Amino acid sequence: MGRKWAMVVDISKCIACYACFVACKDEFWNNDYLPYSLGIKKREQTLIRLEKRERGRFPYVKVAYMPIMCMQCDDPPCMKVARNNAVYKREDGIVIIDPIRAAGQREIVKACPYEAVSWNDEKNIPQKCTFCVHRLELGKLPRCVQVCPSGALLFGDLNDPESEVSKIVRAGLAEPFHPEYGTKPSIYYIDLYKMTKLFIAGSVAFKDTDECAEGVEVTLTDEESGEIRKAKTDAFGTFEFDGLEPNRVYHIKLEYPGYASKEILLKLDKDTYLGYLFLEREQ
C-alpha cells in the first residue's frame, strides 16, 4: 500500500497567529513549481484562509479559529468538472490542478464546496493548495505545518499505522469538515464542534449567601435523543455543556443538598449563556 498524505488540524490549538497564512504566501507568491503550480498573485489571493467564530455573548464569550485549505478530496468535485484532465489525483492522494491545462476553466473554482480554489486573473487559471508537493518530494513538510508555533497542524501518511495522523484518525479523535458533501476529504479536524455546534453555560449562586455555588450537580437532557450529560459547577459556580446539536430542546436541572432544585427548558438555536441562576434553601 502506497502513501496517502493527510493533515489533522487541532482547532483548540489554533491561536490565529496567521503564521500558516504568511508562510503559504511566501512559498507560492511569484514562485513557480512546475508541473504542479505557478506563482499566485501578490494581493487578493491566498491558498489558505482562517475562519473565525465568535460564540456566546458578554460576559461569556468564546472564540475559535479554523484554517481551511484544499481538502485533497478522494472524490474531488473539481476533477469532475475539469476538461482535458486539467485536474488529476496522484497516487499519494494529492489533487493537482495542472497550471497549463486548466487555463480559462473558471468552473473549477465554482465546483469546490469548501471555496478552497481561487482564480488568478493575472494568469487566467484556478489555483489551490497542493500540500506543498514540491517540498514533499524533497522530504520536507508543507510550509504551513513547518511554521505553526502551536502544533495545530499535523501532517503524515494516513496509510502508515505508526504515523500520528493515522493514529488520531483511526481513534476517531478527528473528523472531516462537512462529510455530507461526500467528497471524502484528507484533512481532518480535532474539536470541530467549536465551529459547527453550540454550547449552554451558566453561573450558579446561593441566594441566601450571595456566594458562588461550587459543586452543584447539573444534568442536561436532550429531549429528542434522550441523551443525558452531567457536570458540576466550578469554584466560580460556572458550568458548561459544549458540542450540542442546534435546534433541539434541552432540559437542565440544578441540584445541591439543602437547596431546592431548579429546572430550565430551552430550545437551543444559538450559543447560550444563561447568566446567574440562584438556588434557594429548602423550607
Please give a handful of descriptors for the protein shown:
mainly beta, four-stranded mixed beta sheet, Immunoglobulin-like, Alpha-Beta Plaits, 283 residues, 7 helices, 36% strand, four-stranded antiparallel beta sheet, 2 domains
Itemize the secondary structure elements and their pairings:
Blueprint: E1 5-10, H1 19-28, E2 49-57, E3 60-68, H2 77-81, E4 87-89, E5 95-97, H3 107-111, E6 118-120, E7 125-127, H4 133-136, H5 143-147, E8 153-157, H6 164-170, E9 187-190, H7 193-196, E10 198-206, E11 211-212, E12 217-222, E13 228-232, E14 238-244, E15 248-256, E16 259-268, E17 272-279
Parallel strand pairs: 1-9, 10-17
Antiparallel strand pairs: 1-8, 2-3, 4-5, 6-7, 10-11, 10-14, 12-13, 12-15, 15-16
